[in-house]
Design a protein that fits this description.
The chain has 119 residues and is mostly beta strands. It has one domain: Cathepsin D, subunit A, domain 1 (Beta Barrel). Helices cover 5% and strands 53% of the residues. Strands 2-5-4-3 form a four-stranded mixed β-sheet, with no helix packed on it. The longest helix is centred in the C-terminal third of the chain and has 6 residues.
Length: 119
């Protein structure tokens, strides 16, 4: 199964974060039995959830790159999807803001500033 490198797609339509890559997790809780979730195309099995660390860049007013780390809880492990997905809706609910345009974040080398916490 092809996974898009270290990129995460931001999705306004989903209410949860998902990854097909088990090694993304720094902490993980396995479900006793896989849970089935309905999607637009077919049901998918969820095997558990956990915590993921995501690094991204922001730029200070002088243009200097600063690496930030975001700890994301309750990320769901779904091995049969082909893209890591972050819920933009969840981030906005938590008081974060998005920069629209290129809607990808890279775990190790972002394309642009996508998220930053409100001070």
């Amino acid at each position: 199964m092809l996974i898009f490198a270290d990129e995460w797609m931001l999705d306004l339509g989903t209410s949860a974060h998902f990854t097909p890559v088990f090694s993304d997790f720094i902490a993980f809780t396995c479900f006793k039995e896989p849970l089935s979730v309905n999607t637009a195309s077919s049901p998918l099995a969820q095997y558990g959830f956990g915590t993921v660390l995501l690094q991204y860049l922001i730029y200070n007013p002088k243009g200097k790159e600063i690496t930030k780390t975001l700890c994301i809880h309750n990320v769901i492990f779904v091995p049969h999807i082909t893209q890591r997905i972050l819920s933009l809706r969840d981030f906005l609910t938590q008081g974060m803001h998005g920069v629209y345009g290129d809607m990808h974040i890279s775990k190790t080398r972002p394309y642009c500033v996508v998220l930053d916490s409100e001070p």
